């Protein structure tokens, strides 16, 4: 078994022929033994750290979708299992797609997943979403009917937000829920955000470190809150249930955008009077990071 040779392209799908909707052929047979082995090691490590920390919804869905350490999933076969549960399919793309393309796929219950797997050199951390982040992090939540409705509604909301040029506000909702969301469950706070679920260190940090704030979900507050893209989050927002999240998003966003537009943006570590503070963070991690 040969590990990635150093001159292996970082993303061998980068030049793949793509359709108008940016989808490509996953060409599952072209994955190397080294790539399948990397999936298996990522999967085993992450499953171990997510047990007891991930939302029960996500863990149940992993079993229902037969996600396992048996090599990189074939998105067609995985989609057939997912579609039978919530009507969603996973479509292969080479890399990040333009926002309007992303929203159109979500609005049609298609989740664009990167077909490439991170190179060995980026085993622990990579910036853009690869197949492990997209399938281990995002797909299980799409097997939950309520969350599946929320993601479709988000796709439709995205197209409108672009017309109203308030996409940055909606992208913050995606960031603080779909990517970095926490939920209150019987056993305490649990994780449903894909960006956390696919990161071994942030899975522990998000629930157990004293540094970050943990604040009750508030739609307009979230739309005003800037976020960090290259480190742990300084603030996590907590929903009471996926039903409550969906309910909150059935509001007319037009009026919410109006409110948000006239108020100033909030820093990622800021807390305000109206916050439902669950844990007030020490922010120590960030203070030490940014030097004495
Ligand atoms: C829209 C969303 O907020 C974000 O900007 C995007 N995410 C993604 C994207 N494209 C892919 N493939 N995966 C994403 O997660 N394009 C845009
Ligand atoms: Fe993601």
From TrEMBL:
Which positions fall inside the Biopterin-dependent aromatic amino acid hydroxylase family profile domain?
1-292
Q: Does the keyword Iron apply?
A: yes
The protein's required cofactors = Fe(2+)
Recorded catalytic reaction(s): these are:
(6R)-L-erythro-5,6,7,8-tetrahydrobiopterin + L-phenylalanine + O2 = (4aS,6R)-4a-hydroxy-L-erythro-5,6,7,8-tetrahydrobiopterin + L-tyrosine
Q: Which domain of life is it from?
A: Bacteria
Q: Which InterPro entries match?
A: ArAA_hydroxylase, ArAA_hydroxylase_Fe/CU_BS, ArAA_hydroxylase_sf, Aro-AA_hydroxylase_C_sf, Aromatic-AA_hydroxylase_C, Phe-4-hydroxylase_mono
One MF annotation (Gene Ontology) recorded for this entry: phenylalanine 4-monooxygenase activity
Tell whether DNA-binding is among the UniProt keywords.
no
- Part of which pathway? Amino-acid degradation; L-phenylalanine degradation; acetoacetate and fumarate from L-phenylalanine: step 1/6
Query: What is the E.C. number?
Result: 1.14.16.1
The record's Gene Ontology biological-process terms are: L-phenylalanine catabolic process
Q: What UniProt keywords apply to this chain's record, in alphabetical order?
A: Iron, Metal-binding, Monooxygenase, Oxidoreductase, Phenylalanine catabolism
CDD domains, sorted = pro_PheOH
Kindly list the positions annotated as binding Fe cation: 133, 138, 179
Q: Which family does it belong to?
A: Belongs to the biopterin-dependent aromatic amino acid hydroxylase family.
Q: What is this protein called?
A: Phenylalanine-4-hydroxylase
């Amino acid at each position: 078994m040969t590990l990635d040779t150093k001159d292996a392209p970082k993303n061998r799908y980068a030049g793949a022929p793509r359709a108008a909707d940016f989808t490509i052929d996953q060409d599952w047979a072209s994955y190397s033994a080294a790539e399948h082995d990397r999936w298996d090691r990522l999967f085993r490590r992450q499953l171990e750290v997510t047990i007891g920390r991930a939302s029960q919804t996500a863990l149940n869905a992993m079993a229902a979708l037969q996600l396992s350490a048996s090599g990189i999933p074939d998105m067609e076969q995985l989609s057939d299992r997912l579609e039978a549960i919530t009507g969603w399919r996973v479509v292969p793309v080479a890399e990040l797609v333009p926002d309007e393309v992303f929203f159109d796929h979500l609005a049609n219950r298609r989740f664009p997943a990167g077909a490439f797997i991170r190179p060995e050199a980026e085993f622990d951390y990579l910036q853009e979403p690869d197949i492990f982040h997209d399938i281990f992090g995002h797909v299980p939540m799409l097997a939950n009917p309520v969350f599946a409705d929320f993601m479709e509604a988000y796709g439709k909301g995205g197209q409108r937000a672009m017309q109203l040029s308030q996409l940055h506000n909606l992208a913050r909702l995606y960031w603080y829920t779909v990517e970095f969301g926490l939920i209150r469950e019987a056993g305490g706070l649990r994780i449903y955000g894909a960006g956390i679920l696919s990161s071994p260190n942030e899975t522990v940090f998000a629930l157990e470190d004293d540094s970050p704030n943990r604040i009750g979900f508030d739609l307009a507050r979230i739309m005003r809150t800037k976020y960090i893209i290259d480190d742990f989050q300084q603030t996590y927002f907590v929903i009471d249930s996926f039903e409550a999240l969906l309910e909150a998003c059935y509001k007319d966003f037009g009026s919410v955008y109006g409110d948000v537009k006239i108020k100033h943006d909030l820093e990622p570590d800021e807390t305000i009077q109206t916050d439902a503070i669950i844990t007030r963070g020490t922010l120590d991690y960030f203070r030490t990071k940014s030097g004495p």
